[in-house]
Amino acid sequence: MTQQKIVLITGANKGIGYATARTIGRAGHVVLVGARDRERGTKAAAELAAEGLDARFVRLDVTDLATVEAAAAFVDREFGRLDILVNNAAISRDQHRGPSEMPVADLREVYETNVLGVVAVINAMLPLLRRSAAGRIANVSSGLGTVAFLTDPAPELRQYATLLGYNSSKAALNAVTLMYAAELRDTPIKVNAVSPGFCATDLNGHRGVLSADEGGAHIARQVTMDLPPTGVFLSELGGSHPW
């Protein structure tokens, strides 16, 4: 993708989102650093801009529809289109509690960000993505949410198999991905789930085997590839994960 793209990344003030923004920005694209905290988002965008990247902060709390709509209005006003949307913002409230121990209020909070927030952002940005010659929607997911993993978890990952909030929300996100891909199949817009790999981040207490920079590089590669498929779960290793 040699033509400069307008790329919006949610939850981009730190971790995998920030690393994704940096990698995409270094490739010459405009990166919109979506973050709910104005101070942290502004700081992250300024750090990227100091490296010579075209990075701009966009206040975007995926659980607050007013900020989602305001972000869409900003992108429309400044650029008139959006080429790539990376839905990266996510939370976990499991704390290694079993499913029966997780309060419904915590589960609801996870779904508000990891599922409903993604739907809200896609719907708000879709008119802008339709103006792109080759719009792309990438939902950052996890192998922990695949039916393949939940049915038969690898022994070394079995401790993560009962994370009710995180895993089930990613399973729901995978289903959401497939539904949007089906709706948009006859358009130029490609919709996929993408995997950064098992990265050490704040979300998992830095227990992952890859760095956030490595995960961000994987996401950046997946969302900027030429002639991508649609309706698949792209793997950090190349190819795709089973659902």
Task: Give the topology.
Elements (H helix, E strand, L loop, with lengths): L5 E4 L5 H12 L3 E6 L2 H13 L4 E5 L5 H14 L5 E4 L16 H26 L6 E5 L6 H5 L12 H20 L6 E5 L17 H12 L9 E2 L5 E2 L2
Helix pairs in contact: 1-7, 3-4, 4-6
Overall geometric form = globular
CATH classification, class level? Alpha Beta
Tally the helices.
7
Q: What is the second-level CATH architecture?
A: 3-Layer(aba) Sandwich
What integer is the average pLDDT? 93
Helical coverage, percent range: 40-55%
- How do the strands line up in the largest sheet? 3-2-1-4-5-6-7-8
* CATH evolutionary superfamily: NAD(P)-binding Rossmann-like Domain
Sheet with the most strands? 8 strands, mixed
Oligomer: single chain
Number of domains: 1
Percent of residues in beta strands: 5-15%
Overview of this structure, please?
It is a single chain. With 243 residues, this protein is of the alpha/beta class. It has one domain: Rossmann fold (3-Layer(aba) Sandwich). 42% of the residues lie in helices and 14% in strands. It contains seven helices and eight strands; from the N terminus they run E-H-E-H-E-H-E-H-E-H-H-E-H-E-E. It has an eight-stranded mixed β-sheet, with helices on both faces. 47% of the residues are buried.
Tell me briefly what this model is.
This protein is α/β, with parallel strands linked by helices and 243 residues long. It has helices at 15-26, 38-50, 65-78, 104-129, 147-151, 164-183, 212-223, and strands at residues 6-9, 30-35, 55-59, 84-87, 136-140, 190-194, 233-234, 240-241. The protein has an eight-stranded mixed beta sheet, with helices on both faces.
